[in-house]
Specification:
alpha+beta; globular; 5-stranded mixed β-sheet; 5 strands
Amino acid sequence: MASYPFLSPEWIDAARALREEYAEQVPTSPVQARVNIVITDVPHGDDPTVNGHIDTSSGQTIIEHGHLTDPELTVTVDYPTARAAFVTRDQQEVMQAFLTGKILVDGDASKLLALQAVPPTQIDPVAVEMYEKLDALTAKDA
């Protein structure tokens, strides 16, 4: 399986295909939230900023490129922090980033806390399988 740098256009396309592959198997989200994400200092691509969103308002967790027009909150993080949150899932690094101001939250922060309450890997074996495949398609050195 090919691997790509986190948040590169190729990685985004591969992650989108993975989500579509599992669309009918993923359980509904217990939390409804509409979150825009701004990731700064991206080390590859034409733009050092990547805009994305997480939308669980339909019951499914949709993580996609681009911003929502009516989010409940916007989270701004740098690339290393985003990688720690989404790829390595290093909760200590994420907490340290939050405490040192590397994670900026504008809006209803309770939605962010609710999304973080229970890691998906502890909820459903399908989520574990998806994370394993996402890990496999993510380059380890970028």
